[in-house]
Amino acid sequence: MLTFLMCRRAVLAGIASVVLALTIGLSPADAQTLEAAKERGKLLVGIQGDNVPLGFLDSQGKNDGYDADMARMFGKKLGLPVEFVIVTNQNRIAALQSGKVDVLFSSLAMNAERAKVLQYSQPYIANQVSVLAAKDKPYKTFSDLKGVAIGVPKGSSQDIQLTKLAPDADIKRFDDDSATVQALLSGQVDAVGANQFYLARVEKQAPGAYEYKIPIVATYNGAGCRLGDKEMNKALNDFIDEAKSSGKIAELYKKWINAEAPEFPTKIEGVPYSTQ
């Protein structure tokens, strides 16, 4: 009898553990939808902290930049204050999936591989990724990069593309954009995979010494939410539609990039803009 009771208790305990595990598995990430953000009274936004002029901290430690302005406008449209959470290239998707943030406005280049693990919005900013090096470096093609030490931020578009396009390069991965830029300036690497804003950053410390060498890829950035989150995805797309038609995107381009806003693609292969 005692053995029977012990077995019964073990079975019940096992069932309880499974139920608890399933419950934990649904929280907090699955619970943090748009409605949950409204109940919480604020929107948690993942943003970069060192990527001028998209997402960075100003001299007072305040989040600033193109992405920060976009996120605040989105929060205003929802009627919610925004709380920023600093994320990096390598941890931003995990922060989204775990429920640490509700959405990402984090220089998130749109590609088919990432689209398998998060839901993109439509694009709201374009980016040209290139190899950046000193003017006296003779780099003209990817084959010229054989054995060359090239710095990239971990998990960035630069990292992904150069790993494929320059397999014989000596790719050095750094924690963020600032560390990558400093690696170039200090001579730790001979070149870097750079977004369209890197040259302006290095010019401040080494005017006239560097130039873009090899175009890598033209990318577009979208906001990100969790897979299957139709409500948040629709809210993001409606907001971006409105920001484009009202001229807000054009204003941000002039403010932060000193350029005209481009025509954005209506589709990117392998990247659905809306929850399927």
Average pLDDT rating: 89
The number of helical runs is: 9
| SSE order, one letter for each helix or strand | HHEEEEHEHEEEHEHEHEHH
N- and C-termini, Cα separation: 54 Å
Give the amount of beta strand, in percent.
15-25%
Give the class from helix and strand content and strand pairing.
Answer: alpha/beta
The dominant shape is globular
Largest sheet: 5 strands, mixed
- CATH topology label of the largest domain: D-Maltodextrin-Binding Protein, domain 2
Question: Poorly predicted ranges (pLDDT <50, ≥5 residues)?
Answer: 1-32
Per CATH, which architecture of the largest domain?
Answer: 3-Layer(aba) Sandwich
| Global Rg | 22 Å
Strand order of the largest sheet: 9-8-10-7-11
- CATH class assignment of the largest domain: Alpha Beta
Binned, the helix content reads: 25-40%
Count the domains. 2
Number of strands: 11
